[in-house]
Design goal:
The chain is of the alpha/beta class. Helices cover about 30% and strands about 15% of the residues. The protein is globular and about 55 Å long.
């Protein structure tokens, strides 16, 4: 069984704070030993003598607090949990461009571009979190509801263009080694779960496109489980819960593992989660699994490298660890 612990030794390069949790925790009071946050300041770790709590911030006004358990990878993996955007398919630049176009419409500035410092805040989280961040920074007189209307209209148009052979032809590029990596896992009878903070209408065309490019057939038949952030809430269509509970919250990875793959607490030492984003790494850790970082995303920029068991440039480089 996993146990709680003081994880100070893993929070390398994190920033010390005097208060955390929007004032709920204060250094030196009620057993609080330290309060640490990574460079992107999206989460805060509250350290006690024998436990750690993680305070997950929310641009939408719904923060949460989770216990942090110490993962212990035992080797000979039974299951692999894989992120979609950036880890399985290189698509983050496309989705950040969609956000850029959304802000361009909101500000009526056709030359608008995101800044490099925006990247950790517009990738890895939910659509609403990304948009709220941009509104707060670039157009505080606008609302997230208005932004979502523009975002989904742009997305629908661009996806239709791609499906008809127009638009951004390089929007969805399979990660190097993805095909070989997945087939090797299948050959070893290792369960594979695909996890994404993306809504269904953006996530599924993406992985279907990648599988078509690789000649791998139907991803719904290939993966043992695929969990998305659900269905978008738009006029004339019901939505599902997902915009307030995606990464870095643990629920997408937890549901993929427990419900999708049937894994129990006893199996957690034989599971690895693969991510290229800081939000994803935190999500994996809060779900109780060991995290593998895939370089190329915002893990380094966000300052959460020390939360990863290992980091690799290519998925296939991790096979010895998985199979050991």
């Amino acid at each position: 069984m996993l146990h709680q612990y003081n994880m100070k030794d893993e929070l390398i390069g994190f920033i010390n704070l005097e208060t955390g949790g929007d004032g709920l925790f204060q250094l030196g009071k009620d057993g609080v030993k330290e309060i640490l946050t990574p460079l992107d300041k999206k989460v805060e770790f509250i350290l006690f003598e024998d436990k750690t709590l993680c305070y997950v911030k929310s641009a939408m006004g719904y923060p949460a607090i989770y216990p942090v358990y110490k993962p212990k990878y035992e080797g000979n993996a039974k299951a692999i949990l894989m992120d979609l955007d950036g880890t399985s398919v290189h698509s983050e630049s496309f989705w950040m461009w969609i956000i850029e176009q959304t802000v361009s419409r909101l500000t009526k500035n056709t030359k608008f571009t995101l800044e490099a410092s925006d990247e950790p805040h517009v990738s890895g989280h939910s659509v609403s979190e990304h948009l709220q961040y941009c509104i707060d920074k670039y157009c505080p007189d606008k609302t997230v509801e208005e932004a979502r209307q523009h975002y989904f209209a742009i997305t629908e148009y661009e996806m239709n263009e791609i499906l008809h052979g127009r638009g951004k032809t390089d929007a969805f590029t399979p990660a190097p080694g993805l095909k070989e990596f997945l087939y090797e896992l299948k050959a070893k009878q290792i369960k594979i779960g695909l996890v994404t903070s993306g809504l269904y209408n953006k996530a599924m065309p993406e992985i279907i496109s990648a599988f078509k490019t690789l000649g791998m057939g139907d991803p719904l038949e290939f993966y043992d489980a695929i969990i998305t952030a659900g269905q978008a809430l738009i006029k004339g269509q019901s939505g599902t819960m997902g915009e307030l509970a995606p990464k870095p919250h643990p629920w997408l990875y937890s549901e993929t593992a427990r419900v999708g793959l049937g894994l129990t607490e006893e199996d957690k030492g034989y599971v690895l989660g693969f991510e290229d984003s800081s939000a994803g790494v935190v999500s994996i850790r809060l779900a109780g699994f060991s995290a593998i970082g895939i370089n190329g995303g915002n893990i380094s920029k966000s300052g959460v490298q020390s939360l990863c068991l290992k980091e690799y440039d290519n998925l296939c480089d991790a096979l010895p660890l998985i199979l050991s």
